[in-house]
Amino acid sequence: xxxxxxxxxxxxxxxxxxxxxxxxxxxxxxxxxxxxxxxxxxxxxxxxxxxxxxxxxxxxxxxxxxxxxxxxxxxxxxxxxxxxxxxxxxxxxxxxxxxxxxxxxxxxxxxxxxxxxxxxxxxxxxxxxxxxxxxxxxxxxxxxxxxxxxxxxxxxxxxxxxxxxxxxxxxxxxxxxxxxxxxxxxxxxxxxxxxxxxxxxxxxxxxxxxxxxxx
Length: 215
What we know:
Helices cover 31% and strands 34% of the residues. With 215 residues, it is of the alpha/beta class. It has a single domain (2-211), classed as 3-Layer(aba) Sandwich (Rossmann fold), CATH 3.40.50.2020.
């Protein structure tokens, strides 16, 4: 199921406008902070579809029946660009375990590339809820390759994908490659993917903007 925050006006749209803004992008701290806030909002929205149970909480004046999460997801982050979003999701799901995966484009020429997955560190993932985050879902290939690599650690109970900006092509690929009940939460969906697989209007390279240009 697809969910797009931009379908409804909210403060999330303001944060998305700032991560796109070429002038505001000159401040890496603000860029990271906005990615964190977008991820926190996406995580909050995704939490509405999770399972809850009734729990009695003792207060100084009595007992209150509250709804608490039945199961915390595992927060899975695609390095390095996903680190800022990971921090935002940790603010929302503060008791979750984390997994980290490095995935990058290995270019054979300007337009052709393969996705390389190298580093992977994860807790037990079998039968768990996987919440996978990455700022940009351009082609969707990285998300699919990361998902396939994670299967070595077990089979998910449920998959939730959280991204700041996606393309229709990437969404279609992920929907066709991940389990049919996967939820995909996006901050915005951009219409164009260039021949070099960059999102337009997009925002540029999220990893470079957050952490500095790679050599």
